[in-house]
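Let us walk through a complete example step by step. Step one is to write down the protein sequence. Step two is to encode the small molecule, zinc ion, as a SMILES string so that its atoms and bonds are unambiguous. Step three, shown after the inputs, is the structure prediction itself.
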Amino acid sequence: MKAHQHSPRHRRQELSTLTGRLRQQARKITGPRQAILKILRAHPHPLASREIFAALPKGLCDLATIYRAMHLLEEMKMVKRFDFGDGAARFELVEEGDDGHHHHLVCTKCSGVIEIDECFPAEIEKRIAAKNRFKAVSHKLEFFGICPDCQ
Ligand SMILES: [Zn+2]
Ligand SMILES: [Zn+2]
Ligand SMILES: [Zn+2]
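Step three: the predicted structure of the complex.
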């Protein structure tokens, strides 16, 4: 189980590597898809579809195209979906060969985000799995608080 391995975050993947991964899976590299990857690459924290839309050149595509593209990229495991509890799905690029498992610390005042590499000891999941006779137990978790600048 590699759910608790954390590779260093923010290693920038080359855009050519990313488009290569699309190509490997016989997916077309449309202009919008390439532009979306470029924007995600430039952002260390998860972005909502609307934020991606706002960062794209005007008129390149509509919001529905971004929703579809994010769905596809998630299926291909190139992005990981995060939920900060405000109803907007957020996406972050996943390193090749990494499962992207990590957590965030979100400021409830300024919405600032910090990447958190710490995680529960694997024993907790094992115990929960054994107690309930589950297999393949995983978790999703984000932390919230007030950052030093907002205190
Ligand atoms: Zn992250
Ligand atoms: Zn703050
Ligand atoms: Zn975790």
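Step four is interpretation. The first strand starts at residue 47 and ends at 48.
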